[in-house]
Write a structure and sequence with these properties.
Layout lengths: L4 H7 L21 H23 L9 H19 L2 H7 L8 H26 L3 H25 L7 H5 L3 H31 L4 H32 L8 H18 L1 H23 L1 H10 L16 H23 L7 H12 L4 H18 L15 H4 L4 H17 L1 H20 L1
């Protein structure tokens, strides 16, 4: 009596394939499981962060159906990618109720992610009603139920590469036909609708680039589906297909590119503002010593700006702090000007020209400021002298925050490190001491 087909499937063993997980052969041409798992988890984390980003509403924003669809698509995609990692499959093999149940769950989550992504773009472009959504949801449920039934009736042993190991079985071939067919239809329609949306709607450049990146991710996903189909056809034909890194790379690229495109408008402004923040922060730090010395001498020039920066972004907050520091330094210079003798500028200029020093205006401003600080400490006060002329090279271009900060940084360096400035300050201090002793 011939055994029933299911019994044959129970007793049949998978055909040997060239696989890297078999340590004896060591002939794997793809990535090793540890590296593959690490990269897979990183891709899953990226998709999860993208989902959280879409769930966070901007100030004054409201949650829309398209936004919720997209967040659900990214969240389910993150879970699917994490479930398909080799480390997760190896761990699930010990606890899953049916063999390869973890792969079934990962495939179902991937289909659910495609359902949500397609629902997002259909809601934005085609304005489909609840009836169309119900039809697509019923199709998804029927496909997932049929895949569950096929995997349960196959009664096969656990294997990390289900398609290559059992792809020549009709039951598993039908299983993957449903899975890959649903994905190819969903991704193909998604790409077409996204292209239609980008060509018929005027969007900001950043949003348009995000749409293009999302379409690129869906296109890579379609190419991954085609690659899986070729492998499945080869396995069904009885060829021994050794898994390589192409499938892993395509899947990771599709996930990362799609998640990056879906959230481009959220993270790209932060990336573009990073150089602004860094330049302002470095300039702010370079002025710390000079600012601290001046505010110690004239603390009343400091102003309270509590609560002003709370509504500013990171780069704007750094630029505001730099602007505030520059204003306080300039106010301190104005407050210290009456303490410097009117003839100090001509003496400093003559000394700078005699020494042939570069940037004489920097040295003159630093020496005047140093003399004024020393005079204030000794309670010396002179008749108010006119404001020094602005150097001609600083009048050529309009005022700029970073340019002004760079000028003050050079003044600070000369104030604390220039031998000429120290010599002029010492001569001025000796003159004051001699005048005080004579009096």
């Amino acid at each position: 009596m011939r055994p029933p087909p299911l019994a044959c499937l129970r007793t049949a063993r998978p055909r040997p394939i060239l696989r890297c997980s078999t340590r004896r052969s060591g002939r794997r041409r793809g990535l090793c499981p540890g590296v593959t798992s690490a990269l897979t988890y990183l891709c899953s984390l990226g998709a999860l962060l993208a989902a959280v980003t879409k769930l966070r509403l901007p100030p004054g924003g409201s949650s829309t159906a398209s936004r919720r669809y997209l967040a659900a698509a990214l969240a389910t995609l993150s879970l699917s990618v994490a479930m398909s990692a080799p480390a997760t499959l190896a761990l699930a093999a010990e606890i899953e109720p049916i063999p390869n149940g973890a792969q079934l769950l990962a495939h179902s989550l991937t289909m659910l992610s495609a359902f949500c992504a397609l629902g997002m773009i259909e809601h934005a472009v085609a304005q489909r009603g609840p009836r169309r959504v119900a039809v697509r949801a019923a199709t998804l449920v029927l496909c997932a139920a049929a895949m569950t039934f096929l995997l349960f009736t196959a009664d096969i042993a656990h294997h990390g590469d289900l398609a290559n190991a059992y792809g020549h079985y009709p039951v598993i071939l039908t299983y993957f036909s449903l899975y890959l067919g649903y994905l190819s239809w969903s991704l193909g329609r998604f790409v077409w609708l996204m292209h239609r949306y980008t060509t018929t709607h005027q969007a900001q450049p950043l949003m348009r680039h995000g749409f293009q990146l999302t379409v690129l991710g869906a296109g890579i996903g379609l190419f991954w589906v085609l690659w899986q189909i070729t492998g499945l056809v080869a396995a069904a034909a009885g060829h021994h297909v050794a898994p390589d890194a192409i499938s892993d790379v395509l899947a990771g690229a599709a996930v990362v590119t799609g998640a990056a495109g879906a959230t481009l408008a959220s993270w790209m402004p932060v990336v573009l503002a990073l150089p602004r923040w860094l330049r302002a922060e470095l300039a702010h730090r370079r002025l710390r010593m000079m600012w601290s010395e001046l505010l110690t001498a004239v603390p009343h020039v400091a102003f309270d700006a509590a609560g002003v920066t709370t509504a500013l972004r990171r780069a704007e907050r750094a630029e505001y702090k730099l602007y505030r520091r520059i204003v306080e330094i300039r106010d301190a210079e104005l407050a210290l000007r009456p303490h410097a003798p009117p003839e100090a500028r001509s003496k400093i200029q003559a000394a700078a020209e005699a020494h042939g020093a570069g940037e004489p205006e920097v040295l003159i401003e630093a020496a005047e400021l140093g003399i004024a600080l020393d005079a204030r400490q000794t309670k010396q006060r002179r008749p108010a002298c006119p404001a020094p002329p602005v150097p001609a090279e600083r009048l050529v271009e309009p005022p700029d925050l970073l340019r002004e900060a760079a000028w003050l940084a050079r003044v600070s360096t000369a104030l604390h490190r220039s031998d000429l400035v120290a010599e002029v300050r010492a001569e001025a201090a000796q003159a004051w001491n001699g005048t005080a002793a004579h009096e």
